[in-house]
Amino acid sequence: MINIKYLSHSFGRYWALKNISFSLDKGDFLFLTGPSGAGKTTLMRLLHGSLPLQRGMVSIAGFDLKSMPLRKLHLLRRQVSIVFQDFRILPDRTVWDNVALPLLVRGMVKSQIQKRVRAVLRSLRLDKKSWCLCREISGGEQQRVAVARAVVVNPKVLLADEPTGNLDRKLALQLLEVFRQFHIHGTTIIFATHNEELIKSQPQAKILCLKDGGIVDSNWPLEGVEI
Ligand SMILES: Nc1ncnc2c1ncn2[C@@H]1O[C@H](COP(=O)(O)OP(=O)(O)OP(=O)(O)O)[C@@H](O)[C@H]1O
Ligand SMILES: [Mg+2]
User: Fold this and answer.
1) 64 pairs with which residues across the strands?
2) What are the tens digits of pLDDT across the range 99-129?
3) Protein residue with least CA distance to atom 6, ligand 1
4) CA 121 to CA 134: how far, in whole Å?
């Protein structure tokens, strides 16, 4: 489902990712960890096509990012959803509108949209906030709106960049349960987090630790990586 080889990325002279290689199968759940500045967000943005590929190879959900023309990016985004670390939801629109938007863009019929949005908002305990403007809800609620918007399209790959960062312990565990439900239905998930408790609660998950742009630890053998 995801195959990354010799991936490097620089911002000016600074190498944020250095020669990263790993693969994930369909239905894998990966926790991406590592200290601040390790390169987690950079990796997520590359996988989502939000940063151009500079060096190396990435194939994801059947798309080869090296040869894929920009005009096909929207097709990649149909299969690969992201929850950005800084949410990127529309503050002047309601919770409902934010979550319905990706389905509207896909041309889904209204009755289907209503059904899906209602179910996702309920699973994230946002149903009572449906008609609130996003700028008027709490940071933790905004974070859950960002998750709702990413999962509502039933993506093949779900990239979540510290989606529990603003949540208390109980909400973080509830949110992880939402991800687990998608995982059970075959979605491949990359979940960036510093939260040890969440990681320990999923003993079957893969774990990859980045530091200074390189892989420094993993709980499964990686070809060509000596740890
Ligand atoms: N747009 C940018 N321009 C310049 N440098 C950048 C840019 N984005 C990231 N970097 C640098 O690249 C490195 C990796 O950043 P990245 O955001 O990927 O780290 P991270 O692991 O997600 O950290 P955090 O846990 O704080 O979110 C950092 O040193 C950062 O300062
Ligand atoms: Mg980050």
Assistant:
1) 59
2) 999 999 989 999 999 999 999 999 899 999 9
3) 11
4) 14
Lining residues, ligand 1, CB within 6 Å? 11, 14, 16, 34, 36-42, 85
| Residue range 137-166, pLDDT digits in tens | 998 899 899 999 999 999 999 999 998 887
Ligand 2 ion: nearby residues, β-carbon < 5 Å: 40-41, 85
Q: Which residues contact 7 (CB under 8 A, 6 or more apart)?
A: 17, 19, 20, 21, 43, 46, 53, 55, 56, 57, 58
- CATH number for the domain harbouring residue 53: 3.40.50.300
Ligand nearest to the CA of 14: 1
Residues of the domain holding 61: 2-88+152-218
User: What is the per-residue burial (b if ≥16 Cβ within 10 Å, else e) of 71-82?
Assistant: eeeeebbbbbbb
The number of domains in the chain is 1
SS3 158: strand
Residue 204 belongs to a domain:
yes
Asked whether residue 99 is domain-assigned, the answer is: no
In a domain, 198, yes or no: yes
Nearest to 116 by CA among 132, 104, 128: 104
3-class DSSP state for residue 52?
coil
Cα four-point dihedral sign 11, 161, 147, 170: negative
Residue of minimum CA distance from atom 19 in ligand 1: 37
42 pLDDT higher than 90: yes
